């Protein structure tokens, strides 16, 4: 690479729970720069989760994030004109990013209701190892397992 890696901007933890992961989640939720709306939706979601499960919303959120984050994924690697899908371990920051992306896309794809209710339902499903986001993680793990024969091509 000619340029170095871009510097990672520091992110402030959210005010209510002092969580960096939650603050990052809100950043990814945000559309058109409306951060206050994204924060309000997230806190509504956590309140709904707490109301329905009886557990603190932040605990359910953390469990869901741990459950959805993939351990392995496949990355393409060119060797002698052929492209192999090589299984690799997922770094912690990418694991978190993928989990956020999958949970949000699964929540947005759910039908009806307000976004807070859809996100709450998806988080509760993910915390109990169910739902669309968990299915996405399982597909990723299956791909890595199926291509285990190419693991000696690691970068």
Explain the overall architecture.
- The protein has 155 residues and is mostly helical.
- Helices cover 56% and strands 10% of the residues.
- The longest helix is centred in the first third of the chain and has 19 residues, at 35-53.
- It is globular, with a radius of gyration of 18 Å.
- The two termini are 16 Å apart.
User: Poorly predicted ranges (pLDDT <50, ≥5 residues)?
Assistant: none
Measured as a percent range, the helix fraction is 55-70%
Give the assembly state of these chains: single chain
What gyration radius follows from the Cα positions, in whole Å? Answer: 18 Å
The arrangement of helices and strands along the chain is HHHEEHHH
- Proportion of residues in β-strands: 5-15%
Number of helical regions: 6
Give the strand line-up of the largest sheet: 1-2
Shape: globular
Provide the fold topology.
Blueprint: H1 20-29, H2 35-53, H3 57-68, E1 72-79, E2 82-89, H4 92-109, H5 115-127, H6 132-146
Antiparallel strand pairs: 1-2
Helix pairs in contact: 1-4, 2-3, 2-5, 3-4, 3-5, 4-5, 4-6
